[in-house]
Amino acid sequence: MIKPLTAAISSILLLSAISASAHAQDAAPAAGTNTVQDTGTQDAKKKGDKVVDLNRVIVTGTRTAKAVDEIPGAITVISKEEIQHTLLVTEDATAVLARTVPGYAESSQAMSNTGETLRGRIPLRLFDGIPQGSPLREGTRNGTFTDMGIIGRVEVINGPSASEGIGAAGGIINYISKVPTKQGTETTVTTRYQTQGKGGSEGWKTGVTFAAKQDAYDLLVAASYIDRGISYDGNGRRIGMNTSGSLADSTSKNLFLKGGFNFGEGGTQRLQATYSRFKIEGKGNYIQVLGCRGPDDDPPCDVPRTNTSEKGHIYGSKDAFNDFKQYSLEYSHSDFFGGSLDINVYKADQAMRYLPELDPAKQDPLFAPLGTLWEQSEIDSHKKGIRTSWTRSDLFDVTGLELHTGIDFGKDQAQQRLALTNRLWVPPMNYKSTAPYAQLSWDIGPVTLSGGLRRENDKLTVDSYTSTYYNNRVFVQGGGVKYTESLKNLGAIWRIGNEWSVYAAYSEGFTLPNIGIPLRNINVPGQSVDRISDLAAIIYKNDEIGFNWRGERASFGATHYISKSPFGASLAINPDTNDFILSRAPVRIEGTEATAEWRFDEQWKVTGLYSHITGKTSFWSADAAGRYPAGGLNKPMGVLDINPDKFAAALTWKFLPNADATLGFTSLFGRHLSGSDTRAFDGRTYTYNEQTHGYTLFDLGVNYDMARYGKLSLGVENLFDKQYVLSWSQLAGYQNYWAGRGRMTSLTYTITF
Questions:
Q1: What is the Cα–Cα distance from 473 to 99, expressed in whole angstroms?
Q2: 360-402: per-residue pLDDT in tens?
Q3: Is the Cβ–Cβ distance between 380 and 350 less than 8 Å?
């Protein structure tokens, strides 16, 4: 039996391609996180806030229900309760990740998610499995695409993954919408008021969610409106408007519709349609006043001061916005040729506009004297695709052997324009992808083995274009680049008794290097798209080992990983424009993560997490003419790529049967990085030095459930009104010297009927 079975497995692996390098083990909970969440089925049943059946959890990396203790790797599933706790403190969409996922960087507290990496790399963000944003032109606006009030859970698969195609360099973050679970109808109304106690800081939210379930039919309708005031730091000073887009002084509108019905014999088939529309837009009441970092700044100052805001509006400018539209139609059949079939057809559009700025790279004497042109850029991206999967258990009548296979088709389009003068900055880019995959897993007693392949057959085409005045108005010949990669993963997990498990995994990921940046920076005549080496794909290889322990009242888990890319990408600052430039060179990232939870009794619980990441790259990439290779791994990767060490913890006290309080803190450590190297070819010496200062922030959330009269909640962000500068903003860059928010107090009232 073994030889025919081995041959069959080998044939499938060789003829198909794999999904899901990012298989993820249910690591012990992060701060305040339930690692297994009720999916709306009978697989997970709750008793209070504890999950009493740990058998199954939906995992993005496999795109099918999978037992948590059969998945090698590290996953964090953020529960609805943890999301709601974070919403008491802040409406920032990525704040819940910064508080609960060890390897996730600090929240930018802005419309932009600049610097928000996962394990030192950019993650792929999904909404119900559909990609948000575009790796063709990563505009760092992919973290704010819906109202978090409609999210039922968030799955975070750590480490490079090929399961969803391009873009998952740091891993996959899948935001999954709520599911109606009760027969009949249910309406929830949420109102929220927040203030920093200073003029113009007030904000409010109104949200309504209607859920209906009747036999085979279900419907979810949600709408919300948020109005935010201006933000203040711990010193009571207005925070500057973020040039990539601010949450402060903005409004958000959200509409979400999801309906489906089950049909066929025994209800084995389901058809579901989803529509989502979200727009966050600045109100344009303030303009930024630049700060100064000290005597060495230009112009210099004796006392450092961060950027601030003052009342006003730049003549002719338009409001910044982030606008998402998403449509999907999904068909599933739980008994299709002995397996489960799922087909998802989707279309997603994103438009984003940035704030006006006097950027040297955006000047043009044809429109205004140099140094006087306030300009804004806009990125538009459109994607559509089909995602298919078929899962068959007990393959070849072998107990525990499961096949997961399918094929994905996708089209992605993106471009960037200078909005006020209608100039092309990044030309239209078109990307087509066809990716068959297959994944096998085999449960052999206490051991689970897994492995598979995904085959990417993709093509990028770029139209001919002329660069901007700053880049010498050179003509660039359009062309195409083909990407063909076979991406594999292997993993094993060993369950030792009822409490311990250990695992090891190898996975590969595939992404593109923010192609818009090298395209818009071309300034030498005679260039052709198909000869630009910086457009080459980035292949990530990740090795990981870890263990988990779950006892009756406590749990603990740790993982160690090494992620390498021979021709990687990292961000650097152009000294002339202070804008980002892309550096293509080898990259090596290594990190350790740990999570823990301890329930003293029914009233007290403490959770904690820790993350340590280091990264190295080269000071220079290989010469295109072949005169010298890339440098050694001697340049430390700084805060633009690698988050400082993080330690977070939370203490929850259920002081009444209907009331609880959670006090939490997140601490980012200070860090000093330095490195140097000399290139033998020409004797050029390179150096890098970076110093960041750490900080610790506390937050408090209190809930009081008044039964049929609703729930009243108090949230306090930055409880002790700490004055601090965001870690990624401590590195000198273009107009980026921002302080973090001071104390914010929020009162939320929710009623369900």
A1: 46
A2: 889 999 999 999 999 999 999 999 999 999 999 999 999 999 9
A3: yes
> Strand 685-692 and strand 527-528: pairing?
unpaired
Give the integer Cα–Cα distance in Å for 133 and 283. 23
Nearest CA-CA partner of 703 in 184, 89, 277: 89
The residue type at 263: F
| Spatial CB neighbours of 108, under 8 Å, sequence gap ≥ 6 | 94, 114, 115, 116, 242, 726, 728
pLDDT, tens digit (0-9, with 9 covering 90-100), for 704-747: 999 999 999 999 999 999 999 999 899 887 778 999 999 999 99
With a CB cutoff of 8 Å and minimum separation 6, the contacts of 24 are 59, 61, 71, 73, 74, 75, 157, 158
- Please compute, for residue 39, the number of CA atoms within 13 A of its CA located in the half-sphere on the CB side: 21
Do the bridges between strand 203-214 and strand 217-227 make them parallel or antiparallel, or are there none, so unpaired? antiparallel
Residue-by-residue DSSP string for 437-465: EEEEEEEETTEEEEEEEEEEEEEEEE--E
With CA atoms as reference, report the closest residue to 507 among 439, 430, 554, 586. Answer: 439
Query: Cis (ω within 30 of 0) for the bond into 356?
Result: no
The residue whose two tokens read 């959670």 is 662
* Predicted TM-score (pTM) of this structure: 0.88
pLDDT reading at 653 higher than 60:
yes
C-beta atoms surrounding 162 within 10 Å: 33
Single out the residue of 331, 336, 341, 286 nearest to residue 308, CA to CA. 286
Residue 673 pLDDT grade (very low, low, confident, very high; cuts 50, 70, 90): very high
